[in-house]
Amino acid sequence: MTRLRWWIEWPAGIVRIGVAFLVAVAVVAVVVRYPDVLRHAGRDAARNSDLSYSDREIAGGNGLVGDQNAVYAARGLIPENERYKVVVDPGFGGGSAETVQFVDSFYRYFLIPRRPAESAPWLICYACDLEPYGQRARIVWEGADDISIVRLTE
Amino acid sequence: MSAHALAGLAALNVLYLTCGLAALWLVRGWDTWAQLARLAGLAYVLGVVAIGLLWSLLLIVEVPFSLGIVVGLPLVIAAGAAVAARRRGRPWPSRTPAGSHRRLVVTAFGISASVLLLAGFFRAARLSGLYWWDAWSFWVPKAKAIYSFGSLDVGFFTTLPGSSYPPLIPVLDAAAFHVMGSADVVTLHVQYWLFGVAFVWALAGLLAERVRDWILWPFILLVLVAPRIGERFLVAEADLFLDYLFALASVLVLYWILDRERWQLAIAVALMSGMVLTKREGLLLAAVLVGAALLASARDWRAAWPALGIATAAVAVVAAPWRVWYIAHGVAGEAPTDGLDPTANAERLFPSFRLAFDVLLSSEYWSVLVSVALGALLLALLTRAYAVVVYFGALVLLVTLGGGWITWAVPELEITQELGANPIVRYMGAAALACAAASPVLLSIAWRAVTSQEESS
């Protein structure tokens, strides 16, 4: 009886019940979520582990670049101290809906220390028109979806 | 990911920890080994922030960022702080007898459950690709540029999105790249996981000084399982790191209000300095922290406010060089376009603040962290713990009002919880973590008030 009064006396008992209740709410929330969070982490780990090296390395760019080989070709062909420009034809049909707008951002991230520049000796060309460059444009790599790496000569 | 990269990262993080332990030894001292172990998480965070700030400031004044700086500076700081601590007469920690059996059981259970979850997060982090938009579009490019060029390359930095965002996080990433031997963006996730582990350790260690174990551990675990917190430990962006610093600084400032021990405010100043060099919102959150502290210490303003003024000035001094750098290089500023004009975008006013409160109260993001904190505020109010209630109440309210203000004052932001269209959900993580820190403190104060009353009567 004394024990019960300890819990219900005003106002101290009510505060005790309140503290116990709120801690219990936290405990219940943890108990409910804990297995899911652990399972989810395990699922993420398995998914990451199953990725190929290129899928893991390109990651956020997989939905943008169209052809993974293009980013590796760009990294392999363009020297680290040279500049490049990504040129995307607005009507480019490969990749995803975001490719036209954002693929240059991905190359900027992926190709560092190579720097992007408006006037550059290298073009990463997504179905771009090479006519204006005339004889200066030499295609050094060509992949799927009309993506190419182009070297502009002097 | 290679063993070499992991070993390098481990060595760097040992340096962070060593620096923090030495710095904490200097400003606070260690009484016992158990206390050192409890506060080692805070020491690590202090080490990361102190070294990161110095690296950032050196970079801003154009000192090349090399492997020598990455390794040498922490060694110099650790050695300097340790020598200064010994000269100041700080003793070595002593051994203490173990605590009560029941306490040890609760603590062991809490630590085990946390470690199990953290191990799960590690497995997810260690082979993760870089998927997050802001991470690959500007945070990591900045880090790769610092690593590759050894400087804040003006031509590169000023053309990136978020070019006025401060450099602390890219600098920490670049340091990780140096010790890993390459810009290994996969292993980089392990660094962020370590920041998360250190935060949990620091929060638990700090709160354990005042909070009963059976109240503490449910909230530590709740942080780990909250949808927008634990599972995002691996995300290579600045949002959670900023929230960690904010939550820890908020606890330290509260302790300073209650105890007035200088080391508490000194470390809070270091963490707030880290906040203002982490994200633009860091300035707002630091101002919120100072505002809440001014309100909570108003009854003792003669003693408290000058110290808070000095603390604010110190944070402003750290914040200034980066702002000078980007203004000097023609980068657009951080303030919202319509600033503080109350007549601008009036139609957005109410929906913006409602959005901030909706996000605050959403269990979809924070589980029950916020609702329990509101209940805890009420219970602490019943036991007349006014200073603590005013402090945490003001803190959460001001953060939320700040979130509403951001949406209102930046007309380009849609009034939506959609992550790509408005940063409100990411920003409000600070309020959620402040609630995670507040709840155990408030509940413990309330419990102590009603049980000590009984003991005295």
Q: What kind of sheet is the major sheet of chain A? A: 5 strands, mixed
Gross morphology of chain A is rod-shaped
Number of helices of chain A: 5
First and last CA, distance of chain A = 97 Å
Number of strands of chain A: 5
Radius of gyration of chain A: 29 Å
Could you describe the largest sheet of chain B, including whether it forms a barrel?
Answer: none
Q: Estimate the helix proportion of chain A, in percent.
A: 40-55%
The low-confidence runs of chain B, each spanning 5 or more residues with pLDDT under 50, are: none
Q: Which structural class best describes the helix and strand composition of chain A? A: alpha/beta
User: What is the beta-strand fraction of chain B?
Assistant: under 5%
Provide a count of the helices of chain B. 19
Order of helices and strands of chain B: HHHHHHHHHHHHHHHHHHH
Helix content of chain B: over 70%
Give the class of chain B from helix and strand content and strand pairing: mainly alpha
Largest interface: A-B, 43 and 62 residues
* Record field, number of beta strands of chain B: 0
Mean pLDDT of chain A: 93
- The radius of gyration computed from the alpha-carbon positions of chain B, rounded to a whole number of angstroms, is 21 Å
Query: Which percent range describes the beta-strand content of chain A?
Result: 15-25%
Explain what you see.
The complex is a heterodimer of chains A (154) and B (457). Chain A is α/β, with parallel strands linked by helices and 154 residues long. Chain A folds into 2 domains: 2-50; 58-152, no CATH class. Helix content of chain A is 48%, strand content 16%. Chain A contains 5 helices and 5 strands, in the order ααααβαββββ. Chain A has a 5-stranded mixed beta sheet with strand order 2-1-3-5-4. In chain A, 34% of the residues are buried. The model of chain A has no long low-confidence stretch (mean pLDDT 93). In chain B, 73% of the residues lie in helices and 0% in strands. By secondary structure, chain B is mainly alpha-helical.
